[in-house]
Design a protein that fits this description.
By secondary structure, the protein is an alpha/beta fold. Helices cover 39% and strands 18% of the residues. 43% of the residues are buried. The two termini are 32 Å apart.
Amino acid sequence: MLSYQHGFHAGNVADVLKHAVLCYVLDYLLQKDKPLYFHDMHAGRGLYDLTHPIAQKTSEYRDGIETLWRTASSAPAALTPYLQALRAFNEGGHLRYYAGSLLLAQKMLRGSDRLFASELHPQEYASLAENCKHFSNVRVQKTNGYAALKAALPPKERRGVVLLDPSYETMGEEAAIIQALDDALKRFATGVYLVWYPVVEAKRAEKMIKKIAALPMKSLLKIEWLTREPNGAGMAGSGMLVINPPWPLAAAMRETLPWLAKHLRRRVAVIV
């Protein structure tokens, strides 16, 4: 359960999708001059050195952020918040570091906004705490993400974004996500919830999506990006479910995903 380390996958195609959506949502919400709360349930270490042997072992970032980095000059406007936040970690325009969700959010948010992150893996948590020690508006805890979310909602700001992106190492993870969302929506119905999920078997992903869609909510947006047809043999793509999405998000992703598919040579799937 605690074996997963995101360093092997940092900056891959799935990260590009997840973080492009996250940064777009944050950028939109920051248009209002009101405090915002960000909650990261599975934060990892926060910052990843792409020259580290762990990242080099798989080199998944080469087909993801490295390719995007080279073609960013022609990227759609929806990718601007994501790329701007990431550039802040890479001086001189040379890509070396990939920031996780928490540090991307911290770079975008204001001093009056609050950020919270949980991480259970001992080494990942230690690195996360070190990477966040200078940020007065960030709180990190070595704790179970589901329990921490239940305790945090509703936030005092009454405006917030919650990211749920577990590793899905266990078969019970989908059920835990559904229960967490059910509880969270009862406490904080107006929050924006981002659920990342892998697509290995299409039926497994669709089963979770249907159950989430049945929860009481105003609206749900599904953004899914496949690299090949799912057949159960490894991850064929990934998706983002956005509960209470900003209204321009769907149109922005309809423009952005085909561009990403072309430049990263990956198929685009669905936006519903």
